[in-house]
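Q: Fold this one first, please.
A: Sequence and structure below.
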Amino acid sequence: MTRIVAGSAGGRTLKVPPAGTRPTSERVREALFSRLDHLGVVRGARVLDLYAGSGALGLEAASRGAAEVVAVEAAKAAAALCRANAAQVGLADRVRVVATRAERYLGGDPPGGPFDLVLADPPYDLGGLDEVLAALVLPGWLAPGAVVVVERAGRSGEPVWPDGLTPDGEKTYGDTTLWFATTAGDPR
């Protein structure tokens, strides 16, 4: 069972697609958002949730006070489930789901201004993450002091961070590693 850990929708359960996604475990989400809350980057933030799946990461951010979440998911069934989850937990007014590939979404102009927090949880065997990270540092996508978090299998190794993103540590939980990077400048 997947559920929101904390915030306005804390304890509410989420449906997950029967196949094709790997929802972030509750333990990892709790640790991730504990760090992000400590850094002060969630409340009032514009959040981009790439490879959203069921929406667990983006919905957790919205539950904890993010002003807006854009959840990008290529699989149409998973995107529909993400929309349904947002409505079911009462966060649909702050969560917009875009059914497209991350690369395609980042190929356009950033809608609504830069993002303060990016959560990228691609399938562990997916290629192309380097190109996605490179697109994020193009003008307009990231606010000064933005935080980017990439979730990968520990065996995958650190992502290749493009110029404009400075590595800011990692944390491993079982087979899952969270990699952190930040942009230059003062946070929101």
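Q: Good. Now the second chain.
A: Here it is, same layout.
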Amino acid sequence: MSELTARQRLDTPRVSRRRFSFHVDAEAVGRFSESIARFLGTGRYLAWQTIIVIVWISLNLFAVRLRWDPYPFILLNLAFSTQAAYAAPLILLAQNRQENRDRVALEEDRRRAEQTKADTEYLARELAALRLAIGEVPTRDFLRRELEEIHEMLARLQPPNTADADHHPAADGDRPDHNDRRGKK
């Protein structure tokens, strides 16, 4: 049995030989194709193309010495076919890139909408909790009415007799001393 070379053995990785490879930046190609697609969709492009076609046909019909593309205008048709062959894929590439951007924007809008909805629901719950809490908090009018009722009750408990007020020690401003209380024990 012959000895297997490293290339034939499965347990040995292949040594990569540097070959010339053509690397294309997909983003740069996409931007370039979008710029061409945008230009192809303008009125300026249509005007220039119309002018070129008119000049082309006029020169090939009327300038006898400059006829490079006689009447069936085969070269002009080839130019239009080539233009269409490149324009259609460039426009499709630009549309695909726009679709990807739209998808990302839509996902971001959905995320923002979900966050806004969650924030709104949170604020609605907070407002409901505040309304419940405010319902349990006494208002100024409620406190005023309660204080008036207490004042009326106190006024009913105290006799309107002013003679008792003269003999009352607190009414005269006399306060018993602490020593007096101790002596009375």
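Q: Anything worth noting on the second one?
A: Confidence is low (pLDDT under 50) at residues 180-185.
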